[in-house]
Specification:
This protein is of the alpha/beta class. Helix 1 links the parallel strand 1 and strand 2. Helix 6 runs parallel beside helix 11. The radius of gyration is 21 Å and the shape is elongated. It binds 6-O-phosphono-beta-D-fructofuranose. 6-O-phosphono-beta-D-fructofuranose binds next to loops.
Length: 320
Amino acid sequence: MKKIGIVTSGGDAPGMNAAIRALVRLSAWNNIQVIGFIRGWEGVINNRFTVLNPRSVSGILHLGGTILKTSRSLEFKTREGLEKAAVNLEKDGVDGLVVIGGEGSVRGAYELSKFTDVKIVVLPASIDNDVYGTDETIGFDTAVNTALDEINKIRDTAISHERTFIVEVMGRKRGFLAVEVGLTAGAEVILVPEVPYNEENVLDILKKNVDKGKSSSIIVIAEGVGKTSSLAEAIEKKVGVEVRVSILGYVQRGGNPTARSRHLASIFSEKAIELMLDGVGGRLVGLMNGRVSSISLEESISNEKPLNLELLKLAEKLAI
Ligand code: F6P
């Protein structure tokens, strides 16, 4: 292994920079040259890259986002795009490619691996935490803490005004962020795409809360549920409490990575470089039961990461 490429792809996640830094520096220890493709898969398709060395990744460890930039490339979903990318990897003389991204990036990496012999390893990084093959993705912990900080503030005003707040968190397809944020913020109700939406049930819980003497409530809803405004209307009409909606949005994607996100970036990068040195590709690095391990990209994309529904039950009990 003499030369590798790095690409960050899909939605950015805090800790991507920590991973870039770790990969570049661990490569330097092993005399591996590194190039970083610019703007995700688009950079690989258009062969836009920059040479990275231990000094070019100074001062980025604490920064959110990705210095390599990212994109959601439609062209990469076509055969032509994949072929162009594969040709460029060969032209650039890279023996390995480390992809830092979420579930879509794992799929992209798997598709690309059908067109090239370059060893491809993926480091899971996404605020959605929805990658099969790892207990946790880089960036998830940061997003949880960002949302939690916001909800702590919302709780102050909710209590003061005796209002019900519906707080929408990210998660177009999955509810990992909503569950973790809801549990740790002490939400009265948590709604996720994985559980069929039942408006009557939510209204019932809120009515009971009023009877129990709860003067304010917080509902955490994943954006993928898609019921934020209709639920707000229904609660005002049928429960008779004042409702406000707060959509947290893109603040959840940015910010300084927490220690946990940086830690995962460091240990996942170490494993990726180990795999590269062993000439192993087609793998996703992850954390399984607290240990760094790897599974095949094919296994990762063929399975859906299960959401721990027990945590929803626990949150419900805690909101008595
Ligand atoms: O990064 C994951 C995610 O935040 C999803 O939860 C969200 O739906 C999506 O990205 C939106 O991102 P974009 O607007 O960049 O497509």
